[in-house]
Write a structure and sequence with these properties.
Helix content: 25-40%
Number of strands: 32
Length: about 650
Amino acid sequence: MKIFLTTLVCFFTFMVSPMLAQDNALIFEMQLINEATQQPIPYANVRVLDENIGDVTDANGLFELVLPPDVLKDDTLIELTALGYAPRVVRNDFILRLLKEEKNFLLMEPVSTALSAPPAIKELSEDTTTYVQGTVQTKSGPLQGASVRVKGSLKEVMTNVDGTFRIAADSTDVLLISHFGMTPTEVSAENSNNLSITLESDGQLLNEVVVAGRKIETAYGEKNVDAVGYAASEITSEDIGAQYQSLDQLLVRLTGIQYSGVPGNRVYYFIRSVNSSITRNVLPVIVIDNQIYQQGTNVALPFVNVQNIDRITALPSLAASVKYGTLGSGGAIIINTKSMIKDDETINASGKRSMLVQGNDFNERLALYRPTSPFGTASNFEEARSAFETARTNTIDAGYYIESALYMSRWDIDYANNILYDLAEEGPNNVRLLRTIAYAFEANQQEKLATNFFQRILVLAPNSIQSYRDLANNYKETGEISKAYGLYKQMLVNETEGLDFEPLEDIVKHEIQQLVAFHRSEIPFQELPNDLLSATFKKDVRILMSYNDPQAEFDLQFVDPAKKYFIWKHDRFAAEDRIRKELAAGYAMEEFIIDDAPVGAWRVNLRQAGSLPENQVPVYVKYTFYKNFGTPTEKKTVKLVPLSAFDARMTLASFLNGNDT
């Protein structure tokens, strides 16, 4: 970690120095020290106010500033900030006096013992905290990215590439271990020296099965077989020969499916499903191109040309309930046609093409999401504060604190900020919690307060590619352009050992183009590829969806002015590979571009699509909306919403495209 931080700091300095190097420039190196413990302060933010000059302390609290002659003034102000410390602003002449006295350090006052303590990522000789460590694995080997939590608290860490973890816990604590596609388990922390935990598959997501001596993949992946001569849980277009003329001929081939009735008037149900019963009328739903049809409701299925089918999937009741709620309690038979696939391909998962989708008509009436007050009938700040203080207990409810801070900001932003700081003290090493808090600061337009949280996240999660992007974006938003450019370039070059920024490539490129459009004179833009230097760069609408848990299951519905819609899915059935990729690379975000698209009113609808991950930190979704992205008239809106509020589809946001007002 020390090598990583030092390298990053040197990179920032390298980016600043060529632009500022002059004969009479002042270069000084100093160290930030915790006034109470006399320990160095790693990854603190150092910047010259009103100038594009700054640095970040390394693992030993060291930083370097290069001041050119035009800012060499006695009253030049330098700001020092770090999570858990009181911000400090010092004058240039004060630093010069310290250096003359051979005092090459600055003291910072800690205001939070928990947040000012070094992150629990390595052994510290003076650290008296009790830790539990161990390894999480499957039958196949170590498991990276597993969540290890102390039950009943906000303490959480993630396993590294070797499946190992280290978490502050007492011997009487219980640890909760979970990972996508695995059955969660609990273990006692009593044996704190070397725990070995093996997780089992939860049975809903199977990588492969073997049928008649030939390997095929299940409903959640691809398969390649010559024909369906046996029962399978999935049938693809490759399996549908010319001999198949009706849907009934195919459905009877699905694993575990029985039927009653004659062709053209059959009812299908699962053999081993406890709920499936013709007399009890709990039957699998049939889903054709995302449209749900309930058997036994006298609603006829639309005609389906079997030669136009891309895939048929059978989901038993447990999996279908996760995907479709109570409607899926009897299972689901999912039919996707080639026509739907073709329409979906008019925009891919990264939003590179038009948002317009042909053939999907939107005719629902959905409510617009409005946050509800966590303070009951409180109508002013005093009443809200009284309600919050009354509800505050020894057991911190993270969701209540987040909602309180978001709602309280309308009355007293300082009090709202303090709520978030109080919450952070309960989980100073919990990346999920700290990221949610940083998002809340952004939603409350407190980007500068979010900086130190994003910095700490990068220290805690250096293998997460989103840690770099979030910090780079924050530097850009707070005017620390050289730091932002340094991180963006690191991601663009993509040569950092152990990291692959490819999943965020489009996002990074667009944000570099925005940086060039607004700050060309402040960065060495000449070293960028020509395709990032377009003088006419713009995007009519840019939407970023960020979520604090890659395992969050939801779908987004984009509706254009002509009432045509496109649905982007993020759930374990439609996007299993995507979720696994997010967990492995450490990111949870997606970008959508609406450019040269239909003019008029658009809406973005959100729906929770599965069970929520069990965690002390609720799932939150951050919606960042840019209009006229990369132009002088650019406008930005940020919303942070709890996914639990969208158990039914609701309108998250609406906007006008093609209107500059």
